[in-house]
Amino acid sequence: EKCKVGYDSAEEWCFMLQLQGKSALGAAEICNKTGGRIALLDSYKKIEILRTYINEKKEFLLASSIKTQEQDLMMSFHRIRDMSDYADRYCKTYKRFKLSWSTRKLYIPNSELPIHFDANERANRTTPAGFIIKTSSIPGAGLGAWTTSKVPMFTVLGEYEGEEHKHEGDMSYSWIIFEDDEEEHMHFIDASSLAKSNWLRYVNCARNVHEENVKPIICDGLVFYMATKDVGPNTELLTWYGENDGRSLGITRRHPARDLELRSTNYVRVKYKNPYNLDNHFVLFDPFNKKGRHIQREYDYSYYTGTAGLLLPFVCEHSPVDTDQIYRWLDPRNWQTFGLFYNFYLKSW
Ligand SMILES: C[S@@+](CC[C@H](N)C(=O)[O-])C[C@H]1O[C@@H](n2cnc3c(N)ncnc32)[C@H](O)[C@@H]1O
Predict the structure, then answer these.
(1) Distance 98 CA to ligand 1 centre (A)
(2) What integer pLDDT is reported at residue 102 of this predicted model?
(3) Nearest CA to ligand 1 atom 21
């Protein structure tokens, strides 16, 4: 037998399907321990052989209980998508009827302001009944907006008020509004002034999908905030600021409202060698997809899954022929080294 213990022979390769769910790093570690490495897809033939190999073990894979994470992820994704659809509908109605009965039904207006008050108290004084401004649940984030009673899903928490500029002001309280999708046609709604904003300025940025419960609806040059879940009492309202602002707050996670490309809940993690740039990286391999779309780039889904990322089954391999080594020689980035070796070889010969 050419394959090591625990490995199965599949044509010229030796594979081992691991049904335990692991992160990319955890998987690499286990493959190392068994004397192999993460299976590397570097030829069409190998992809086909690996597909056949996994298909033979299909029942085990389908029976493994670790799919719940992918299912959660897809559900969260669809929920976020549904919220976008709902927001679009809300906006259409708003554009036609403004705040009429239909858009006002689930709309929470600012608290009414007294006639005389300190101008800088405006923002806080607009806080409606059922909400309170107090220290955020996020360490170091300052103040936050909290519920004191239940808020049903789809409740519009009001309009994000601020000064409208054409120039960039204090970006930490600004929404950028693109009018008709053109960069030149944009403005900012800047809530940095306490005298010219309302309580929604205190809504902080969610760090993950579990705590995210508010969606900005950008509509008709304005921004509304809408609850995307039934929110219980004494819960902080948190929304996703967008990738740029998220990043500047140290939240580098990808918010998959943009593009969650998962199509399956049967992924197996392997590596893939890109034939164009010879880069090799982790991919999600869907061995049961018959339409040929079985390789999926793996993005950072930790916005959903927490820091370890998706826990997936994976395939280890060890090959009597180290194809990775061969590719290293073929990689143009290594040719300089190869040249040195070649010169040395010629000279010594
Ligand atoms: C629109 S304000 C939110 C209200 C702010 N916390 C306050 O006390 O006025 C945005 C600012 O809140 C803070 N913040 C919001 N989300 C945060 C997060 N996830 N982590 C750290 N700071 C955050 C940052 O200082 C950010 O510039």
Answers:
(1) 30
(2) 83
(3) 141
| Residue scoring higher pLDDT (3 or 77) | 3
Q: How many angstroms is it from 189 CA to the middle of ligand 1?
A: 16
- Count of helix runs (H) and strand runs (E) in the chain: 10, 18
* 133, containing H or E segment: strand 131-135
Structure tokens at 200: 């929604």
State in Å: Cα 154 to ligand 1 middle. Answer: 23
Chain segment 274-312, per-residue pLDDT in tens: 877 778 888 999 998 877 778 888 777 777 787 777 889
Model confidence pLDDT, tens digit, residues 79-113: 888 899 999 999 999 999 998 888 888 899 999 99
Name the nearest CA neighbour of 187 among 204, 175, 172, 197: 175
Tokens of 3: 């394959």
Is the C-alpha dihedral spanning 206, 136, 217, 246 positive or negative? negative
Ligand 1 atom nearest the C-alpha of 248 is 27
CB contact at 8 A, 197 and 122: yes
* Digit-coded pLDDT (tens) for 221-278: 999 999 999 999 999 999 999 877 877 887 766 665 555 667 777 889 999 988 777 7
In the chain the domains, ranked by start, together with CATH numbers, are 8-68+264-348 (3.10.100.10), 83-248 (2.170.270.10)
Pocket test for ligand 1, best of 189, 204, 303 (most atoms within 8 A of CB): 204
* CA torsion, ordered 49, 54, 58, 62, to nearest 10 deg: -140
In the reported structure, the alpha carbon of residue 193 is separated from the centroid of ligand 1 by a whole-number distance in angstroms of 15
